[in-house]
Design brief:
Shape: globular
CATH superfamily of the largest domain: Response regulator
Largest sheet: 5 strands, parallel
Number of helices: 10
Structural class: alpha/beta
CATH class of the largest domain: Alpha Beta
Order of helices and strands: EHEHEEEHEHEHHHHHH
Strand order of the largest sheet: 2-1-3-6-7
CATH architecture of the largest domain: 3-Layer(aba) Sandwich
Number of domains: 2
Distance between the termini: 36 Å
Strand content: 5-15%
Oligomer: single chain
Radius of gyration: 18 Å
Length: 220
Amino acid sequence: MKQYRIVVIDDHAIFIQGLSLLIGGQRDFQVTGSATNAAAGETLIAEQKPDMAIIDLNLGDEDGLDLIKSVAEHFPETRILVLSMLQERYYAERSLAAGARGYVMKDAAADTLIAAMRTVLAGKIWLSDNEQKRYIDSLFQPRAQKSPRKNPLETLSNRQLQIFRMLGRGHSTPEMAQTPSISTKTVDAHKEQLKKKLDCASAQELLRLAISWNKDAPPE
């Protein structure tokens, strides 16, 4: 029996321990390593070249989408499955575009996660039934019949959505600028774009909207 080598990249060490026990309960799965940040995660994948990397999108102040893009580019033999509390509606399609092969919410049943892992390892895509339907409908619905997206958050770029989320969690511009490849000028420019896209008249209104959205979102 082939034994698949799995690595887990999540910023919560206790969660990693529980997930490792769950995955290790499968005879053909073995968790061979874990990491709590993007840099350590990519180094781990480079060293082990595992069959699968399970990656959380929220890695502290780092964006898991950037890690997914890098892993997909440099280690295409490693299948990527996202396991996150971030809302599937906003992040599943972005994750697939970055190079992931599946998306599972952290509140899903254990059997769902195992099924997703087997599906992705078999070379197929895994999404929830609702997200799969929405994704397929968006691909095949005639352009002329497509209605405008109801939620303006779906129009944000990956970086803009990251900044909007960090803003709602109380991060200042200098703190956001500590994220790799983002300067304070870039953060300010994205905030201006966020105000336009989300129809906010002021920075205070944008902040209130970000805080409200983070309260409504599931805990990370």
